[in-house]
Amino acid sequence: MVLPSRRDLAVRALLARHPLTDDQPLAALLDLQGVRDAANDLHAAFDEVTAPGRPVLHTFAVKAGSLVPVLRLLDGFGIGCEVASPGELALARAAGLAADRIVLDSPAKTPAELAEALALGIALNADNPQELARLDALVGAGREPAGPVGLRVNPQLGGGTIDAMSTATATSKFGVALGDPGARDWVVRACTDRPWLTRLHCHVGSQGMALERMAAGVRATYELAEEINAAAGRHQIDTLDIGGGLPVNFGSDEVKPTFREYARLLRRTVPGLFDGRYGLVTEFGRSLLAKSGFILARVEYTKSAGGRPIAVTHAGAQVAVRTVFVPESWPIRVAAYHADGLPKQDGPQVRQDVAGPCCFAGDLVARDRPLPRLVPGDLVALLDTGAYYFSNPFGYNALPRPGVYGYSADGEGPAVLTTLRRPQTVAELVAEYGGDC
Ligand SMILES: *Cc1c(COP(=O)(O)O)cnc(C)c1O
């Protein structure tokens, strides 16, 4: 007999505790043990390569899973927060994160955000010369930074397989483009002129980026730090923030690449970064959560058009925006369950479309996908959707945000569920859409 997987146990527990009803025909689930394992893997990978005693601050890119209980959980696993807006900072603070475990990045920080970060001691990475001038004004007015300040650079190494995720192209909007005429000298002088500028930051890209290119970005940033420190005649740049971006395998249950492979590649390609002279900050998002989450939705109708079977479900663009709009770059696996929560693996596979509830033709989460023939009442699970899916909803057709539940399943007895976000009520939805104006 095959033992039920943690995911299968979570499906059963959900149906027992929060059945998929007409009002709540979909829900999202997060495997809390999977998140802990990912956090432990990250710590272990960098512990193995860093010199003893060197500080490493791992932060979680809040945009990848912006739910307060998730941030609190990760903080408990020793992972801080990388925030990129006042809202994300508010989420991190609501989760109870200490200022020295938060890093602020954003290409559009307002004067108020800068002043607040300096006052609270939140580390921040300036994006461009104008932002640095604003910081100069604040520092000149006596607002000495209470936390570390860095400068984001773009080593312009080129993109990965997904343009929208590639932040180190020649014309990327992020950071100071190092290869542009005069830019490198400007950065060196900008740092040596400002003793409070002690960090460099780079984030080469997210999903679709080869590990070698990510490592090349870190290497370019390290070489710049060495150049600045030589020009300053002291160890002014003492920490590198190497961003996140470890890609996730959406094709199977296997975790690949791993944090360990990346950390070892970094040690091989940038050995000087690990000899004890530099502290490190990381900002992984997707790789910490993606494989631990899934969305479960009811099949409402099944039909056929032009010979193609179509299952109309309640999970579409409102929870899977990238997959729906850019399906070639963001394919996801779909698993089928019977209405009672047992896996549906029986019967011949039939190629079918899995559609969402939104009123536009492209609202499909899978096209022409071989699956057991779905019938109304069955459930579909959209796998590996723990990051950037249910936490980043798309407002369309006034569809409410689904509930999100954490689960713990040890294989003995039913899975235990914890609410991470209540399902949005219709009254809350009406208020969000101006009903209170
Ligand atoms: C989005 C982002 C990250 C996280 O990227 P992942 O691909 O989710 O790991 C890290 N740093 C910055 C600056 C980002 O914009």
UniProtKB/TrEMBL annotation:
Limits of the Orn/DAP/Arg decarboxylase 2 N-terminal domain: 51-289
Residue ranges annotated for the Orn/DAP/Arg decarboxylase 2 C-terminal domain, each copy included: 291-386
Family label: Belongs to the Orn/Lys/Arg decarboxylase class-II family.
Superkingdom, natural source: Bacteria
Keyword tags: Pyridoxal phosphate
Name listed for the protein in its UniProt record: Diaminopimelate decarboxylase
InterPro entries per UniProt: Ala_racemase/Decarboxylase_C (IPR009006), De-COase2_C (IPR022643), De-COase2_CS (IPR022657), De-COase2_N (IPR022644), Orn/DAP/Arg_de-COase (IPR000183), PLP-binding_barrel (IPR029066)
Cofactor(s) demanded: pyridoxal 5'-phosphate
Origin organism lineage: Bacteria, Bacillati, Actinomycetota, Actinomycetes, Kitasatosporales
Transmembrane domains' residue ranges: none
